[in-house]
Amino acid sequence: MGDDKLGYLYIKRGMDILISLIGLLMLSPVILLISMLIKFDDPKTTIFFKQLRVGKNGNSFFIYKFRTMHQNAENILMENNNLYKKYLKNNYKLEQNEDPRITKIGLWLRKTSMDEIPQLINVLKGEMSLVGPRPVVPEELEEYKSKKNEFLSVKPGMTGYWQICGRSNVGYPERVDLELYYVKRKSLMFDLLIIFKTIPSVLKKDGAF
């Protein structure tokens, strides 16, 4: 590994630790408020949701988010036969406003991307970075075919090139090209550019789903 590449990795990790620590401290009142709102909206639910994702070199980890769905989400959806058929036909997706699984506070959290704040914990732990390809569930790896190892050669990120290019508005196979574009061209300047472009993207709610 060259000195330039090693230096980039050290700086990137330093930024991850510093920004995630500052972010968690500064956002602690917001985290407390959101936690209270989630419980107020549905007292029986848990505040955080965790899901198994695939990280760097294929190592699995649990990604953290604020819970945006009811605890018995899938049963709620399956009770509506017509909506469930639509869900299956539409590649396992529904418009957020018609999805009965999503709580009232969850709808707002998703539209503002605030449901992803707990991922700062993943960044601090070193499982994720601030910038990188979006972490996928094991089944999604099949979309990368012969490029799996290339995709998994870097840490997944809270934001990335795919997010600033449309996020959920850009599906597979186009998403593969965007994620691999970042992997091939990753650099400190590219990371900073993505971070700065993420801010207006979040404010405009581009592709928030």
Question: What is this entry, summarized?
Answer:
The protein has 209 residues and is mainly alpha-helical.
Give an account of the 3D structure.
The protein is globular. It has one domain. The mean pLDDT is 89. Helix 7 links the parallel strand 3 and strand 4. It has 10 helices and 4 strands; from the N terminus they run H-H-E-E-H-H-H-H-E-H-E-H-H-H. By secondary structure, the protein is mainly alpha-helical. The strands form 2 sheets. The protein has a two-stranded antiparallel ribbon with strand order 1-2.
Give keywords.
10% strand, 209 residues, 10 helices
Alpha-beta content class:
mainly alpha
- CA radius of gyration: 18 Å
In N-to-C order, the SSE pattern is HHEEHHHHEHEHHH
How many strands appear in the DSSP assignment?
Answer: 4
Number of helical stretches of at least 4 residues: 10
Q: On the 0-100 scale, what is the average pLDDT?
A: 89
Q: How many distinct folded domains?
A: 1
List the strand order in the largest sheet: 1-2
Runs with pLDDT <50, length 5+? none
Tell the overall outline: globular
Largest sheet: 2 strands, antiparallel
> Terminal Cα separation, in Å?
38 Å
Strand content: 5-15%
Helix residue percentage? 40-55%
